[in-house]
């Protein structure tokens, strides 16, 4: 089966879930991760990612997220860059020498053909804080939400730094409390302030092998600054966000939530790697085989993410059974976690397979248990 065949069931899950959302929007979080295979001598298509000992593959993923609830829905696009090829679910697959961000625009273009029936907001971390790309996305009509560093913008017809606007928010007490948030497991206060700014300066662009300053059309964006405060009003963390969604029904707080939910893609990566599927231990000998298995494994990840998001009584009972099978201990007040549910699901499938075998019955299992645990009560 091709990668396009294998991504289609995941996209269908994403389509169905997006159409059930009460929001007019859906989020598509873009991120990249390294797959460490430096000790896998059987794989002949490994690439050097940074330094000479940083060997493996580079994977980029676009994860669909419900804009109303923040629920993970499904990965909708995947590229796996090896030493000699790019294995991709895209129709317009990236080239070997493309920069990471060069992969984003084609995915933005293709997302309009996925039948999501929602406006797609592309959420990207600080790596996408490049004016040239934001101009390109805005001109093509794509909606984006990007975390940014300090930069000069036009505000109230004056050229100022974003940091100066943030100081103005603080000085004029324009931050508004919008509820509680979790920070390293502790409940803290979240505040938000926003205004409109214009990105007007020239941007850098490589033309004929030389980096040049290029003037472009100014673009209007919403500047949203969100911060977390402890009980003493000390600022624990602060994020500066730029977004071109101008919709009166979408508040600055909602935009801050959208960026916060971007971290769900990190949970997906953990499920594939150290907290579930153990991707970096897979023994397939080519990037193409690894890419196929990633998509199959992603189906299991989506199944447990759906279960984690389900608040029904039936789902609660299923979670309880899977957590018991997993052997994992939960923190006080935590019902379940996706890694624990995935571990329990694997045990359940193994147990079910044994019970459905014609040469194994409950009596046989009890005798095996008695031999393995001679002091257990049978």
UniProtKB/TrEMBL annotation:
<dbReference type="InterPro" id="IPR012337">
    <property type="entry name" value="RNaseH-like_sf"/>
</dbReference>
<protein>
    <submittedName>
        <fullName>IS4 family transposase</fullName>
    </submittedName>
</protein>
